[in-house]
Amino acid sequence: MRKSLVPLILLLEVLISCNKVETHKNFEACYTNANARSIIHDDISRAYLIYVPDSYDGASAVPVLFNFHGFGGSASEFMNDADMRSLAESAPFILVYPQGSCSEGSSHWNACPTGGDNKSDADDFGFVEALINEISSQYAIDMKRIYTAGYSNGGMMAYGLANYKSDLIAAVASISGVMLDCIGTTSHPMPVVHLHGTSDAVLPYNGSNDWSSAQSILDHWIDFNNTSTSPTVTTENSGGISIEHYVYSQGDNSVSVEHYKYIGGDHLWFNTTFKGKTTAELIWNFVSRYDINGLR
């Protein structure tokens, strides 16, 4: 887990400490998004992309999945790189790609409460909650079936929400991400699926002085959810690499913790399939089995 993130540059510290002359700040300098919507949270304009399936008519509530981009990314680019729109059509569910704010010229997510191991003072947990309130005021959504997924720093954000906004989140998925030290008080058994490559040079699979290992993250949720400690393991060769699938089942409220281990896999949103399923399908097939009360 990250022990200490790079502090803000001196200029930003000066700007924060001085009297603020702007009450409405916009951080679009480090990203561009096409067709983005926005809300104001903490006097900051925060952007997001939303995809509503054609079949949505408001007659019945539908689930929502938030997918968070990585450090330095944009919602538009990530929607293309980690495209779940066809899946949202067939499932169906409402798909949201939020935009991280900027610090030191890069977009990011703060996966800890304010004052923790964060890259800035942006209130990203509050932003997501405000975004849920905004979307639920416009669409009929199933408030028991709100899911989060994320890549890299976005995976950190998904775990942060599992720790600090678990009253809103039913299940989480992390792709090439880690969980930070700021462990919160999760209010219910939390289904977790973690996808990670063993050759990840950015967030090493076996951890480092700064980041926790994939197994230590899994162990946290295995213990928290009281699942079996002896996983069922299946293996498949796909796209030139071997993928191992670990299932820790029989947790409280019948939740499970699952892990896809990409042998030789790099730091990326994986393009290979497992048992014919894309990364997007693996995520949706896992999280959609649950609502906030556990196995549906």
Write the layout of secondary structure elements.
Elements lengths: L9 H8 L7 E2 L10 E5 L2 E8 L10 E7 L6 H7 L3 H6 L3 E5 L2 E3 L2 E3 L15 H15 L2 E11 L1 H12 L6 E5 L16 E6 L16 H12 L6 E7 L2 E8 L8 E6 L16 H9 L2 E2 L2 E2 L1
Parallel strand pairs: 1-3, 4-5, 4-8, 8-9, 9-10, 10-13
Antiparallel strand pairs: 2-3, 3-5, 6-7, 11-12, 12-13, 14-15
Keyphrases for this structure?
296 residues, alpha/beta, Rossmann fold, two-stranded antiparallel sheet, 15 strands, globular
Q: What does this 3D model show about the protein?
A:
The protein is of the alpha/beta class. The chain has a single domain (28-295), classed as Rossmann fold, CATH 3.40.50.1820. 23% of the residues lie in helices and 27% in strands. It has helices at residues 10-17, 75-81, 85-90, 124-138, 153-164, 214-225, 279-287, and strands spanning 25-26, 37-41, 44-51, 62-68, 94-98, 101-103, 106-108, 141-151, 171-175, 192-197, 232-238, 241-248, 257-262, 290-291, 294-295. The strands form three sheets. Strands 1, 2, 3, 4, 5, 8, 9, 10, 11, 12 and 13 form an eleven-stranded mixed beta sheet that branches. Strand 14 (290-291) and strand 15 (294-295) form a beta hairpin. The two termini are 32 Å apart. Residues 2-27 have low confidence and may be disordered.
